[in-house]
Design brief:
Elements lengths: L12 H12 L8 E2 L8 E2 L16 H11 L34 E4 L2 E4 H12 L12 E2 L4 H22 L5 H20 L10 E3 L8 E4 L2 E4 L6 E3 L1 H12 L3 H14 L7 H29 L8 H27 L7 H5 L8 H6 L4 E6 L5 H12 L2 E4 H12 L8 H9 L3 E5 L6 E5 L2 E2 L7 H11 L2 H14 L4 E5 L11 E6 L2 H15 L17 E3 L5 H12 L2 H7 L14
Parallel strand pairs: 5-9, 10-15, 10-16, 11-15, 16-17
Antiparallel strand pairs: 1-2, 3-4, 6-9, 7-8, 12-13, 13-14
Helix pairs in contact: 3-7, 4-5, 4-8, 5-8, 6-8, 8-9, 12-18, 13-14, 13-15
């Protein structure tokens, strides 16, 4: 996760404001957010006044100058810059009503008013541009087929569901509903594809058109924010705008009439393609936002402010968009009932962000349990998610026994500690078994530590209370800040403020895991000692739950009770899906 302030490679807030004033001839801008084009890194700035709306500026300096120069060569109002301007003293918290204006029908959009006839003519002017030269540097080529767009939505949907599994979220009603929606929409898309054959003429499209991408500069209305610009089907541009603006039927008719009247070339199939794209956009918007949640969490997408607050805001928006999508598709299919955001929220979690809440508290978490109870996978998963130090007491002991140089079964705890004191021992977590690497003075010795003799010596030492008491002080010296400590038993080893979890599994499950491990090693392993289920609230059964879900369970238990109450929502997995499979 990166909270970016002001990289030198992109223009500063002052430069963005100055360039905007030169390009538009309007003063009073404040820089809040600089979003990336396809050829620039993402860059974000916080507004001096948090009540002002975001100013979005999607261009690095070279592209900025290129697009400003292009303004003089294109028809007035064809292409502008990605900005918003807040006018103090107007009603409401959003941009002033005066931001959009002109004659013709006005559609109320919250605090905004927009002349859809002007927007339609502006889009027609953009789509009729004879040359793609001004946008060639970052406009992508898109096949004008609704099946191609649908395939991209499906890929985003699958990626989101895979991230959910990686997060440890269960297969709840939300996951089932998203999968059902994809199947339902696919049938509609296949039925509409004939309207796209032969493929319509490709034009320069905005790619992300909505009311916030319109600028009133003087008496002209301009489009801006071309970081998603593409060469594709013009009908998709207009459909994106209609969905984002939530136009009613009358206003939508006005938009289409004005657009078709303004286009230089007639297109008999435009209306059919428009409504096909519009239905798909209803699903595409929330799916894209859902995937964006995990791009913030796992791919380091920059955010303005606290990441948990941003995730919360994005989740609330995604819930509203999902409710609208489900209601629209219910109406289209002639079944179901309108859904409110609270109905969607009750279906399940969109993203898990408990690990962010726990990171700032520097937790010390102990993971103990018998062999083959998933201690190491769970402990390393926890360390990775919490960005915590990982300490494996067994691996640490085996390293000392190996360094001592004597017969393993004859080595005592004093020799182990003396051997460890003379070397730098580092544990690194990895995703593949054995889930960690042991480095001694920079050399990887992981495989050398996995011999039966070393394991027997480790079990012998840790089984003695006297040895555990001797290990406590040096081990606590390794625990700095957030830390996850793993051992077969943690008696006498952890600080008083640490949280201790005991993992267990059914005997048959442990035997199966041991058998699989023996096949991997290519040798027989000793019979497992019985391990009765422990008692207590911090005992966790690992027989069937996947590792990410176990890690999330532990993180949730480590949070204060008031935070857990705010995060967790009812699980309605027993509900019947909205759509039949």
């Amino acid at each position: 996760m990166h909270n970016v302030n002001e990289p030198d490679s992109l223009c500063s807030p002052a430069a963005a404001v100055a360039a905007t004033e030169r390009a538009t001839g309007v003063t009073g801008w404040q820089a809040c957010e600089l979003r990336s084009s396809r050829t620039a890194q993402s860059y974000l700035m916080r507004a001096a006044d948090q009540e002002d709306r975001l100013l979005r500026f999607a261009l690095e300096p070279a592209l900025l100058e290129r697009e400003i120069a292009a303004l003089d060569q294109l028809p007035p109002g064809a292409i502008g810059l990605q900005l918003e301007r807040h006018q103090p003293g107007t009603d409401g918290a959003g941009p002033a009503h005066a931001l959009f204006g002109g004659s013709g029908r006005l559609a109320a959009l919250g605090n905004k008013r927009i002349d859809v006839g002007t927007v339609a003519r502006l889009c027609a002017r953009l789509h009729d541009l004879p040359s793609l030269r001004p946008m060639r540097s970052f406009a992508v080529q898109e096949k004008p087929s609704i099946l191609a767009v649908f395939q991209r939505v499906v890929e985003n949907q699958r990626a989101y569901l895979l991230y959910r599994e990686q997060d440890g979220l269960p297969q709840d009603m939300l996951a089932l509903t998203l999968a059902d929606l994809g199947r339902v929409v696919r049938r509609f898309v296949v039925a509409q594809e004939h309207h796209f054959l032969p493929h319509p003429r490709r034009t320069l499209c905005h790619g992300a058109l909505d009311p916030t991408r319109l600028l009133r500069a003087g008496r002209e209305l301009r489009l801006f924010g071309f970081e998603e610009a593409r060469v594709g089907d013009a009908a998709r541009d207009l459909a994106l705008f209609a969905v984002a603006a939530k136009l009613d039927e009358t206003t939508e008719d006005d938009l289409l009439d004005a657009y078709l009247d303004a286009r230089a070339k007639s297109d008999d199939r435009f209306v059919h393609r428009y409504f096909a794209h519009k239905l798909l956009c209803v699903l595409e918007r929330p799916v894209t936002r859902l995937l964006g949640l995990y791009r913030i969490k796992y791919q380091g997408a920059p955010v303005v402010g606290d990441v948990v607050e941003v995730l919360n805001q994005e989740m609330m928006t995604a819930i509203r968009e999902l409710a609208a999508a489900l209601t629209t598709l219910n109406d289209f299919l002639g079944r179901g009932r309108p859904l409110a955001p609270r109905d969607v929220a009750s279906m399940g979690r969109l993203v898990a962000y408990e690990d962010y809440l726990l990171r700032g508290r520097n937790p010390v978490i102990g993971i103990e349990g018998a062999a083959y109870t998933q201690k190491t996978p769970v402990a390393t998963e926890l360390a990775a998610r919490l960005e915590a130090r990982y300490v494996n007491v067994g691996a640490w002991l085996r390293t000392g026994i190996q360094l001592a140089g004597a017969e393993p079964r004859a080595v005592g705890v004093e020799q182990v500690l003396a051997a460890l004191a003379g070397h730098e021992v580092v544990l690194e977590t990895v995703s593949e078994p054995p889930h960690y690497h042991v480095l001694v003075d920079g050399a990887d010795v992981t495989d050398q530590l996995r011999t039966p003799e070393l394991y027997q010596a480790q079990h012998r030492l840790l089984g003695e209370a006297r040895v555990r008491a001797a290990l406590a002080a040096p081990l606590r010296g390794l625990i700095r800040g957030a830390c996850v400590v793993e051992a077969e038993t943690l008696d006498q080893l952890l600080p008083d403020d640490a949280r201790r979890f005991t993992l267990f599994a059914a005997p048959a499950v442990r035997e199966k895991r041991q058998h699989e491990h023996a096949e991997t090693l290519g040798r027989e392993l000793p019979t497992l000692a019985p391990a009765p289920p422990p008692e207590g609230v911090d005992a966790i059964d690992t027989s069937h739950a996947p590792t990410p879900q176990l890690a999330l369970d532990i993180i949730q238990r480590c949070l204060p009770a008031d935070l857990r109450a705010e995060i967790l929502v009812p699980d309605f997995t027993g509900r019947r899906p909205l759509f039949e499979r």
